[in-house]
Specification:
Blueprint: E1 5-11, E2 16-18, H1 20-33, E3 39-46, H2 48-59, E4 67-71, E5 86-94, H3 95-105, H4 109-124, H5 132-148, H6 151-154, E6 158-160
Parallel strand pairs: 1-3, 3-5
Antiparallel strand pairs: 2-6, 4-5
């Protein structure tokens, strides 16, 4: 990781293994496409119960979701003398929900997690999809970023843990 980039990856689930290096690489490329030279963000992988709790507490929706984004301030700068120009915030992903979506969409779990991470980072930067015009802008930006991320990057960024104990 470049010294001007800081991505904290936190995994609070046991069923899936997360490749921190690949998640950091996806974040670095995404932020690079957004023209951030120096940034900081946190990516957490949580259980179905935890994402439901967060969704209820922060959005008033009592059901699980795939990704939540908690921006510190959209496109805010960290201030003079601090190491990062952009302190983005937190992206929280539920791999259990992502896994169901991946099956439904006929794509790999790694690609779905990559998509959700890009989606979450865009939300941290102020992009939204509540209105049709906003959605068109966000989806076009997301498509361009996903085109820069090849399968080698998202392949095995997340995997089901082996259920056998060694």
């Amino acid at each position: 990781m470049h010294p001007d980039e800081h991505t904290t990856v936190i995994c609070k689930i046991r069923k899936y293994a997360i490749c921190h290096g690949k998640i950091e690489q996806i974040a670095r490329i995404t932020c690079g496409q957004l023209r951030f030279k120096r940034f900081s963000l946190s990516v957490s992988f949580v259980s179905l119960g935890r994402i439901r709790e967060l969704n209820k507490d922060f959005r008033g929706i009592d059901r699980p979701t795939d990704v939540l984004a908690f921006p510190l301030c959209p496109r805010a700068t960290a201030g003079p003398g601090l190491p990062f120009d952009h302190v983005l915030g937190d992206v929280v992903i539920c791999v259990a929900v992502a896994a169901k979506s991946a099956v439904r969409l006929g794509q790999s779990l790694g690609r779905e997690v990559c998509f959700l991470l890009v989606h979450g980072i865009l939300h941290l930067c102020g992009y939204d999809h509540r209105q049709p015009q906003e959605e068109a802008i966000m989806l076009a930006k997301q498509r361009r970023i996903m085109d820069k991320l090849d399968a080698g990057i998202w392949h095995e960024c997340v995997a089901l843990r082996n259920s056998r104990r060694s």
